[in-house]
Here is the input.
Amino acid sequence: MLNWLQQLDELLRGDRTRADQLASGHLSISLRIFVPAALGLGAIYGFFMGWFALSGDSDGRYLHALAVTFKVPLLFLFTLLVTFPSLYIFNALVGCRLNFTSTLRLLVAAIVVNLAVGASLGPILGFFTLSTDSYPFMVLLNVALLGIAGTIGLAFLLRTLRALARAALGPPAPPPPRPPENADAAEMAAPLGRLAATREVAEAAARQDQAANSIFRVWVFIYAV
Here is the structure.
């Protein structure tokens, strides 16, 4: 349990998506840890979501609350299962360096971040469950809270894709030294050549960012559908 929490904390802090790990195209994200983590975190939010049903007097309210508890994490993971083949194929066509397993790890990590934020917002949902009996309000509140969690999860995914694209270029080159005032033409040409190379690297980084943005947009569209 402590190991599970430690790895989740490292993921949220960015320690498992560092530049040195991304440069090798490998993500230090264990599916044996983070898939159960996604199930557990989703179940926490699902519990608070289904709690509102317990305030009613229907015969099936307990079964309904139990179903919602399990439905939330399964919805996220089942959607990933259905969409992953197309997500990976497009990822390979665009030229992303992530292999099959690393792509799966990245998407599971994004879901875990999403559900971790959702689980942290669960007590807020529970507070309003005890404070109101308005079903429309609770629906809107769930949309708002899941929207916040989804936005943060997408931001994590886009940031990691961009970092991965930049890592493919290697470490940034140091800026060229300033030539002395009495330097001749040859000494002046060398820093200018390094400056031109630096500009080429910057242009390549911009192209990598565009590729990462393209992957992100298509992934979001496929996953949303």
In short: Residues 94 and 141 are 38 Å apart (CA to CA). The helical segments are 2-13, 19-23, 31-51, 61-94, 100-131, 135-167, 185-224. The first helix runs from residue 2 to 13.
